Amino acid sequence: MRRRSFHRALILGIGFSFLALTCAPAVPAQEGEFKSMRIESIAQGTGTQLGQIIRVDITIRELSTTEERDALIAAFKAKGSTGLGRALSKMPSRGRISVTGTLGYDINYARIVQTPSGLKLRFVTDRAISFREAWYDTRSRDYDLSAGEIDLTNADGDGTGTLMPACMFTIGKDNQVEIELRRNAWKLTSVKVHQ
After folding, report:
1. 17: CB partners within 8 A, 6+ apart
2. Exposed, middle or buried, 131 (CB in 10 Å: 0-12/13-18/19+)?
3. Largest Cα–Cα distance in the chain?
4. Which of 20, 90, 99, 125 has the fewest beta carbons closer than 10 A?
5. 186-194 and 37-44: which strand pairing?
6. Range of the domain at 24
7. Residue 35 — φ and ψ, nearest 5°?
8. Which residues pair with 80 in a beta bridge?
9. How many CB atoms neighbour CB 129 within 10 A?
10. 3-class secondary-structure state, position 167
11. What residues pair up with 192 in beta bridges, in sequence order?
């Protein structure tokens, strides 16, 4: 029971942090010059995926614009997570994420935001749906987004982050954005940022 309430609090916390994605001020480098970055990390599974250690590589070539952010907010308000997924699929690629054992896929939205604890990279993208998922029309198809947050403050090998490989955004009872996960979020450790 205690473990379940911890996971719920974690998910709500992540949901609230992504709500800040819509309200957070842009970092000065956001609007001006930005050099691409490559992020290497190790993902550790939690809960049912405990014990799995997977390498995650993220490349960000450019950051999303304020207009793109506003378009995503409007799509989410109009049609929820489905509208958000459709809007993301129409956006140009801003980078790429690859997980060990996969070909990887494009990141369609990436922003750097200033938080009280420092700079964070937040990204959201439409998740690649496997042929098996599409064929059997499993429940996992409802979770067609992937999202993540990486702390850039201490990203010299000791950095941390969170990756949500299959999620969808919803509006909770108290009218707050929540992130519903298909499985558990992955904890990113040993984060290194190369520019």
Report:
1. 115, 122, 149
2. exposed
3. 48
4. 90
5. antiparallel
6. 2-194
7. -95, 145
8. none
9. 14
10. strand
11. 40, 156
Predicted TM-score (pTM) of the model is 0.75
Six-digit token pair at 22?
Answer: 């819509």
Query: Percent of the chain having pLDDT more than 90?
Result: 24
pLDDT tens figures, 146-183: 899 999 887 666 788 998 888 888 877 776 777 778 77
Quote the CA–CA distance of 109 and 92 in Å, as a whole number. 9
Residue with tokens 């996969």: 102
**CA separation for the pair 92, 82 (Å, rounded):** 18
- How far is 181 from 92, CA to CA, in rounded Å? 25
Q: In angstroms, rounded to a whole number, what is the distance separating the alpha carbons of residues 126 and 122? A: 14
Q: How many CA atoms lie within 13 A of 138 on its CB side?
A: 13
Structure confidence at residue 48 as a pLDDT band (50, 70, 90): low
